[in-house]
Amino acid sequence: MEFVERFAGLEELGPAPGATALLRRAGVQLAAAISRVIPSPFGEVSAAMLLGRGEDLPSNLSDDARRAGLSHTLVLSGFNISKAVAFAAIAASLLPRTLRIFTAVLTGITLAGISGFGASAIRAAFGVAAAGFATWRFRRADPATALLLALLAMSWANPLALAYSLSLQLSALATLGVVAFSERLALLPIIRAIPATAGLREAAASTLAAEILVAPLIAWKIGLLPVLGLPANVLAGPAVPVAMLAALVAAPLGFLGFAPQPIAALLALPAQWFSAVASRTADFSFASISAALTSAQAALLLVLVTAAALVAIVLERRERRLRDAPLIERLTAAIIETEKRPAVAGRRAQIDIS
Predict the structure, then answer these.
(1) Tens-place pLDDT, residues 109-140
(2) What distance separates the 2 farthest-apart alpha carbons in the chain?
(3) SS3 of residue 226 by DSSP
(4) Torsion of CA 102, 105, 109, 115, to 10 degrees
């Protein structure tokens, strides 16, 4: 017996018109310009870090990064967007404060669009927007509040995103871990033994904090845990913002067709170092281990680590209020004392809070 089912032909119409399609095309052109200057595969690595175009990477390099626990740097995650936003803020440092904040927020949103508005990139862009508004309105941004507002905004736009998007789940959990645990973990003797040069200690603390939250989800969904993720991130992490900066320099040179060999070799160095760390780490047989969890086990662990993170955030805020309380009390008492003094013409009131 033979059964044949005929399907209608499909015609490729290309991307739908609109801002998203324009940003995606701009991303393709930027990646091509970067690759014209920085030799392959390091040009693709730099473009992936800056633009989130991980699909252009060679498969062996993607596999090495996954085994080494470095794959999160080759997509447009919150880490990458935060570095790009920092570059934008530095470039706009001479502008008025409002324009500087607006430039930084616009950079984050534009990069999210270039990457195709993936779930993790949208979350990061929402977080940047919330943090930018808080900085503009209250002069201080709270990362935990920015993360909460970003997740609420995404849930309102797409209620199923948080339930079914693995990239968004990993991004949110990693950010929560960094916010909740990174400062406390930085006080551990094993972390303090790492030099603070080039952000190595910060990279170690942030990586360990993120791993605490995402490990149960990775073990459940992927079944593979990168054992050497911490040392790999300590070694390769500082190269990521440098590679992103190299890509920013290479893009206009690629459009101009100006790519002298010495400049190309220099711009390739950070991505070359990152690739070497990923490759050497992945060569170890124990670089990643199989750690499959059932859905019940993963759910229990996720509830426990998330609850621990929330408790840590609450305790940190309480400690901060206790630290600030004496200063606020002294300031209030000084203001009251100043108001009791008789006004003297031509003399400015001075407040002593020592």
Answers:
(1) 887 777 766 666 777 777 777 777 767 666 66
(2) 107
(3) strand
(4) 130
Looking at every residue in the chain, the average pLDDT score rounds to: 79
Beta strands 224-226 and 288-290 are: antiparallel
Give the CB-side neighbour count of residue 342, counting CA atoms within 13 A: 2
The residues, any chain, with a CB within 8 Å of residue 184's CB and separated by 6 or more, are: 312
The answer to whether the CB of 154 falls within 8 A of the CB of 161 is yes
Q: How far apart are CA 316 and CA 322, in angstroms?
A: 10
Residue 187, both tokens: 């006080």
DSSP 35-92: HHHSPTTHHHHHHHHHH--GGGS-HHHHHHHHHTT-GGGGS--HHHHHHHHHHHHHHT
Q: Is the pLDDT of residue 5 over 50?
A: no
Task: State the CB neighbour count (10 A cutoff) for residue 79.
Answer: 23
Amino acid identity at 223: G
Q: Give the DSSP letter of residue 342.
A: P
Confirm if 274 and 243 have CB atoms less than 8 A apart. yes
CA dist., res. 159 & res. 155, Å (int)? 4
Q: What is the pLDDT of residues 221-279, one digit of tens each?
A: 888 788 888 888 888 888 888 898 899 899 899 988 887 888 999 999 999 999 999 99
- DSSP element (H, E) containing 221: helix 200-221
